[in-house]
Structure formats: structure tokens, C-alpha cells
Amino acid sequence: MIRRVDYQMCVDMLEKVHENPYGLPRRVRQANVSRLLEALGHPERGLRGMLVVGTNGKGSTCALAVSAVAATGAQAGSMPSPHLQEPRERIRIDGVPIPRAEYAAAFSEVWETIERYGLPVLAQGVFAATAAVHFRRAGVALTVAEAGVGGSRAAAAELGLDVKVVTGIGLDHTRLLGTTLTQITQAKVAAAQDGDHVVLGRLGPEAATAAERVLKQRAGLSVWRMDHEIHYTARTAGDHGPATLVDVSTPRAVHRDLPCPLSGAHQHHNLALAIAAVDAMAERGHIRQPDGERLRSRLAATRWPGRLELIQTRLDNWTGRILLEGATNPQGVATVAPEILAHAHGDGRPGPPVLLFASMHDKDAPGMLAPLPSHWPLVLTRTRAPQAASPAALHTQLAPSRRGPCLTAEDTPSALHRAAELAGPGGLIVVFGSLRLVGESRTALGLQPV
């Protein structure tokens, strides 16, 4: 008999999983994921689709891919990672988070199995198993999954999806994956298995060499690489304000005039990857080839919260704009910095924006702050994540050359109020450094999960 739990109990149990109450090594909890899926009756065996790995751009690529799949008439389940506000955001059907009651029902089945067979797993394992169970219950077979940390060691890799997408490689999660681009690339690209179709994003020379070395160890692969088998061009068009249209070509098809509604030039690359992955799924017979007009319509409606998400808001007596950005490593911030600067310069106010920053304790905080002007005021805070760095610890890491005022706040709501005081009426606050910070900010501002 499955012990039913309500949604809040799911949230509380997941917090305990993060705390690792039994003190088990990570490798043991990783190994238990496959055993958990077996004990659940292998819900993953009914799934087909794509797994996205990489350092940055995974979530956006998945969101665009889900829109493209919807253009074929197929129903798609998706598994973004991490969530911003609620765990149920990690299980979506056609891009929409499942209801709390449905999440709790699938979670109950997973948790009862963990307890019955004594199979402690990482939180990522709980998320992946819960998604697989829900998709089995809902009769959804096509899946767009985002890997958490790593590639072959990510819990989502246990789902056996045969189209693998690598968005790009950078130095992040070095404590778990290695301290060089070669080591990190090997860890991520190792998700590819014999017979897979691999879609490679734009990689630097060291990462490209390491990826090629891993893929040579696999048999029967199909490999499409950005700027080789995959090409794209982007241009500005539109009679009613600027819009970006992207042409994408793959070995299977040429797609013209695709709208890219997500902000930033880096999203054109993510759109091309998503289209190439959808073409790869069509090549494998998982879906039909999307119709051009329907594809354009679905892509135009794509939204992905927390990535250069601009909000005009009122916070108590303050009215202004808040830009939410989920970049969590130096290369991610460097990529979006031109967009942040464009918002700052278009503000029309003499004062600078205010940066609101938090990060995990193992992240390169100075590297993330470096791409933005050092004279901009800064508010340091911490999230409720167990691995969050304290404001005091972040303050000690600030570069000596930093010139702007720096304040600290103990939690996200108080940090937002401090930032609003610094920004002044009509000002701009830039929230970045941690997806958990972005999620807590959305909740504090009264925004619902999307």
C-alpha cells in the first residue's frame, strides 16, 4: 500500500534528501537510481526523446525544443532542472508544470519504493524517478529531459533517451566533474551511448577534442555538430518593433524565418540546437517533421522564466524594474552581460542599476561579478539552499578593485527591499548568481510558477 503524502510533505521530504541524513557517499546514492527505477517496474522504458547536457543554455534549449515538438502534434513531457519556485516545475507536459496533486501522487509511489527497498538516492534521482512515474501514469512517451550536474552520472541519463544534446562546455561544478575543460567535457559527453544520435553545440578547441575522443569510443553514433552539419543565421526583422528571425539548416531539413522570443544572441544558438535535436528525433521516427507555419507559431509563444526576464513591479512603496537572470557561472554572466548593459543604458536614469547577488559556496563569485561594472551598487544575500554561501563569505571574496557600495542582507525578501532603496524610484535591479535566488525573488514578488 502506497503511503500518500500531500504536496507540502513532498517539499519537506526533498529537503531531507538534500541534507543526506544517512551520510552516504554521492557515488552510492547515484548507483541507487538504476535500482530504484528497476524496483518501480522500469517506468523509463516507455520513454523516448532527448537528453540535454552542458554547462549553460540547457533549460532554454529544452523549452524551445518542447515548443518545436508541440508543432508536430505530439504531446511532450519535459524535465527541466533545477526548478525555480516549486518542485512540480520539474515535471511538465507541453511545457506546463503538472498540478500539485499529480506531483504528490507520483512522488508517493517513488518514496514508498525508496523506503520499502532501502534505496537512498540523490535528490536528482528522486526528481527523475518521479517524472518517469508520472509520464507512465499520464501515458506520455516523448520526453525532453535536462541533465542536472554532469552527463553520464546525471540521474536523467538513466532514462535511456537516445538523442543527446551538448549545449556547450565551461568550467563549472569543478568539485564534482574535474578542474579542466577536458575532464568536464568527458564527464558530460560520456552520457552518449552506442547507437545514439548526438547533437553538439559550439565547443572550444579543448572541449571539441575531448568530445571527439569520447565519441570515438562509442559504436553506431550519428553526430551533428554546430557549424559543420548544423548552421544558422539570425537577423532582425519586423514591422512592429524589432524581432529576431533565425534560419536553421540540418542534414534533414532547412527551417526559415524561425522566431526567437528569448532575449540574447546566445539564444539563437540554443534555438538552432533545439531544432537540430527535433530533426534528429524525426530522423529516428520518434515524431513527425514539424510543419513550418505551425513551428513558427509555437516557437513564438515560448517563454522561459528567470532568463533575462524583465519585470515592471511594485515592491511596497517602490516602483521600478527587476531583471531576473539565471546565470550561475562566469561564462554565463559574460554571455548575458551585453543584454544587462543594454537594459542599464536604456534606463534613461542617471544612476546605475543595483546588483542583487547570491551563489552557492563552491561557485566562482568574483568571476561572476567581474563582467559587470564594479561601480554598480551591490547587495549580497543568501538563499535557503543548503549549499548557499553566506553574505559575509561572499563579501570577503570581492575584488579589491570593486568601487561601488556593498550591502548585505540575510534573506532574499530583505535583499530586494535593500536593493530597491539603493535603486530609487523607477530604478533597475539585476538579480543573478543563483537560480534559487531567481526563484525566491519571483516568489517574493508574488509571481506564480510558469
Notable characteristics:
single chain, alpha/beta, Protein-Tyrosine Phosphatase, Chain A, 2 domains, six-stranded mixed β-sheet, 17 strands
Compact summary:
The chain has helices at 7-19, 26-39, 58-70, 100-117, 123-138, 174-177, 181-189, 205-215, 266-283, 292-300, 330-345, 365-369, 391-396, 412-423, 435-444, and strands at residues 48-53, 76-79, 92-93, 96-97, 142-146, 163-166, 197-200, 222-225, 231-237, 243-249, 254-259, 309-315, 318-324, 354-357, 378-380, 406-408, 428-432. The protein has 450 residues and is an alpha/beta fold. It folds into 2 domains: 7-300, Mur-like, catalytic domain (UDP-N-acetylmuramoyl-L-alanine:D-glutamate ligase); 309-444, Mur ligase, C-terminal domain (Protein-Tyrosine Phosphatase, Chain A, Alpha-Beta Complex), CATH 3.90.190.
